[in-house]
């Protein structure tokens, strides 16, 4: 392999690595807030359901 073909090969590998790392960072920047919002919504919903369940349990114990 002569020096020019090595330079072209290394340049290609460098650009490919840069492209893949940029895509990885952008995908993390997009999916991390989405996951945070999903988990926050799920926790809030579960807390609301637990409060309702406790109130219903207290009401049933009062009826008994």
Automatic annotation (TrEMBL):
InterPro entries assigned to the protein according to its UniProt record, in alphabetical order: Col_cuticle_N
Coiled coil (residue ranges): none
Keyword Membrane: yes
Protein origin, superkingdom: Eukaryota
Pfam families reported in the protein's UniProt record: Col_cuticle_N
Signal peptide (from-to): none
Keywords linked to the UniProt accession: Disulfide bond, Membrane, Repeat, Transmembrane, Transmembrane helix
Subunit structure: Collagen polypeptide chains are complexed within the cuticle by disulfide bonds and other types of covalent cross-links.
Protein name stated in the entry: Col_cuticle_N domain-containing protein
Taxonomic placement: Eukaryota, Metazoa, Ecdysozoa, Nematoda, Chromadorea
């Amino acid at each position: 392999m002569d020096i020019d073909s090595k330079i072209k090969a290394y340049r290609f590998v460098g650009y490919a690595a840069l492209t893949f790392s940029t895509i990885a960072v952008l995908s993390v920047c997009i999916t991390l807030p989405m996951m945070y919002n999903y988990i926050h919504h799920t926790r809030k919903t579960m807390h609301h359901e637990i409060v309702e369940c406790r109130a219903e349990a207290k009401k049933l114990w009062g009826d008994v």
